[in-house]
Amino acid sequence: MAVIKGTSEGDFIGGRNTDDTVYGYGGNDALFGSGGRDVLYGGVGNDALYGGSGADTLYGGAGNDDLFGGDGADLLFGGVGVDRMTGGAGADRFAFASVNDYANPGYDVVTDFSRAQGDRIDLSRIDANWNVAGDQAFRYIGSNGFTGRAGEISITLRNSDGDPVTIVSVDTNGDRSADFRMQIDGNVQLTAADFIL
Where in or outside the cell (predicted)? Predict the structure, then answer.
């Protein structure tokens, strides 16, 4: 396994057909995993990460990043900023670690969510209820409005510039307003099984 490190500038780094770990660090980087089970870290800057073939893990880091999983069951973390995530073929997980990943008024966008391929939205790293000690799980309430109970996930189907989108909203403190939002391209009738809660 190779470890490949970039610089504080904008780097163009290609991995090998092995299990590589690639660090972009600062600057607007383009990182390519190629073959193998790769781990790509964008770091600071507006980065583009391409997993290639294999089950890859992509971390956008800070900045407005574009993540492309490619083939295989990939794990994509956008990080802080307004990120676009495309899983590609395979059962992919689009993961969020904190409500700080939500850059109001912009949304992180998942471009190709596919239940048929086994894609899932992973919110398990976010505490669903700030008012209770420990790490609580979320409760999916479909297209219903928030009820005032912390830890609810609701969806809204709408149009954005004439295109259908699905907005996922999360209330972590029970004040009936969203503390986190993300967007899925297309009107997707999500169910609780589409999430890791």
Answer: Secreted
